[in-house]
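Late entry, evening session. Most of the bench is empty. Finally got around to the prediction I had been postponing all week. Sequence below, unchanged from the version circulated by S.P.
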Amino acid sequence: MSRHPWRLAVLVYAAATILYTWPLATAPTRLLGAPQGAGDPYLNAWILGWDLDTLVSAPLDVVSGRVFDANIFYPAQKTLAYSDHLLLPALVTAPVYLLSGSVVLCYNLVLLGSLLASALAMFALARGLTGSLVASLGAGLVWGFWPFHTAHLIHLQLQGMYFLPLAFLFLHRLVATTRRREAVWLGVAVGLQAVASVYIGVIAAVALVIGGVTLGVAVGRWRSGVLLRRVLLAMVVAGAIVAPCAWPYLDVQRKEGFVRTLYQAGLNAAEPVHYLRVPPDNAVYGRTGLLRPAAQMAGRPAEKSGPERELFVGVVTALLAVGATWQLGWRQRRRVIWPFVAIATAGFVLSIGPDGVRPLYAWLYDHVFGFQAIRAPARFGMLVAFGCAGLAGFGLAAVATRRPRLAWAMVVLMGVEYANAPVAYVAAPMFSTPVGQWLEEAPGPGAVVYLPLGLDADNTPFMIESLQHRRPIVNGYSGQRPAYFAGLVDTLRQFPSADALWTLRDFNVRFVVAPARVAQANAATPLVERARFGDRTIYELVWTPEIEERLERADVPAPPPAPESLPFGIGERARYRVLWSGGGSMALSAGDIEFRVIAPPANQALSNETFQFEVTAVTAPWVSGFFEARDRLFTFTRPDLLPTLHVQQLREGRRILDRAAWFDPGRRVVRTANGPAEAARTGNGLPLAPGARDPLAAFYYARAWPLAPGATLRIPVNDMGRSLTVELRAAASETMAAEGRTQTVVRVEGRVEYRVEHRRSPRATLWMTTDARHVPVVIDIDAAFGSFRAELVEYHAAPGR
């Protein structure tokens, strides 16, 4: 048996791959290797299909980087970089795609091959460190098949763990020999791991730094100049491999500001108890309910549940890891054991996220590239499994020297713990449809929008269908989305309103795929029916000068009246202390907000503006530990307080984003874009209601309201392309202490109404002085994420007022 260890390993792991994913191997073209369809599985199937088709039909696009200009979220660019690109798995399965033309088959082969390759890679590492066959088989079983893989069947990109063990194998060889060849192979393994999965690449880099430093200290070579030069060589090699794929991500992050805040990361962090949770399909602990929360077993949603919180590594694995550390840690093998201990410990600490060791996580977030993109710190739990797999291998090797049968029995028990009951996979999606075929054969270019346009996973079936015709589509779903997308979704919910049609014209959309025939009340319409397939109808937007002249904008409520007098002037300044309750009874100081009214700068583009309103927000030091903000917003308005330009400069931790909105009330459009303000002037036009203001201009407009008790005011607001309405109602007068004295104020109740409600709308209460200045002295905001109160602490009136 030991004469052919690799042959045995391949047979064992291939059998385990088939058994643990049963019945996928019986229908690899009819089932999709995921327990659900729409959402991340369809997203990854679209990514893989886009890559495969590009490799086959336009391979130079992969070399040039044009492959990242994928067809979703039209007209946004480099949308493949909104998530993992999967180019390496696509390259490996391209021959299968050439022969079969099946994206589903390639998807399933990537899944099954990732499990097999991960197990074999850990087998190679353990074999190189222990020399024991049983130890190597056990370690590979852990890394290739621990329940995390089953929990994340919906995340194909998280299955690609196969290069991390190989990188550690070459790292150990490099430390032992300092040979240049090992440094090159180390760089290749690290680079390929980052290319295989951007997410795992970041996590693997953390593991390599921790493991490398620990190993260097353990063997006494951390000061070796030769070793440091070899490590530098490995970094250069890895960088050369990663750079072509990394550049689009850097470009997108710079333009779109795609960075997770510490607060967002904390929402998807693990807790210690989650290391005792398994996926529902686990045969021993999941189906029986031994390690499943009662709420989940009853079919009810459990707090902080789901794949990010199913991190169980196995009882046998944990016992072997602890035993190896305890028994061998201070003996001759300490030099290779302690890096695994360090990695497992670091993985556990980091998986707890910002709420664990906050200073450490915050420092890494600020200084380590890639940390800002981590949405789910719980995934650092894979480092716990990596460390446990290596330590379990050492433990099995120690047991095998005295009781070899017991060691083999423990490997079998590992396999039993990881066994799954048959997984309920979904049917493979349809990649070829009559609608897709018609759009493929339609002459000439042109973008497509599928209705209804949703915000999230409901777009993924349309993405799958778009692979047939490869036309740009407005729909999209990914790890990120363009800034204008929410406003576009709201507008197209009103289809076929005039606003929706004009928006599609501004976006240069040619085809509309509707779920039913569209009732058109107006004869002046650009919609021309081209084809009908069952309940689905394809329309083409055909614009003529006559249609453009006759198609009026949709009827909208009359704009609010222009202010009769202004209670403020240039030079006014007000500073507020912000208190946060988080939904509880105790209020904590969260930061400061300052409002200013200043004169606009001399600028030809802003020649008719009278005011520049500016607000800056800075978080308190204690808040900066999980959400740091130094934001600046400013708006230029005409004398009637209608805006021409609104700019947001957001500095939230490592998130740096500038975006602007140009208001064109004559054409009734607002154009938004990320980046410099000038970029928005030619950006994509979204509908602008008459009298609509940005949130900052609306705040000052509300101050110009007469505040008659019982009166109601409705202000149309456009927030970076998204239309909403703010309703204000003035109540009776009250007295309130502010700025060290008692003042008479009017309580104003505010409510935000969105076109499409996606969450509980925020409500606000303002207490404004009854004098001519109408200064808000207290502002209460009640939102879904907590309650805030802004209290006036300093006020300077405009000169002469």
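Two things to note before I forget:
Confidence is low (pLDDT under 50) at residues 295-303.
The longest strand covers residues 722-738.
Will write this up properly tomorrow.
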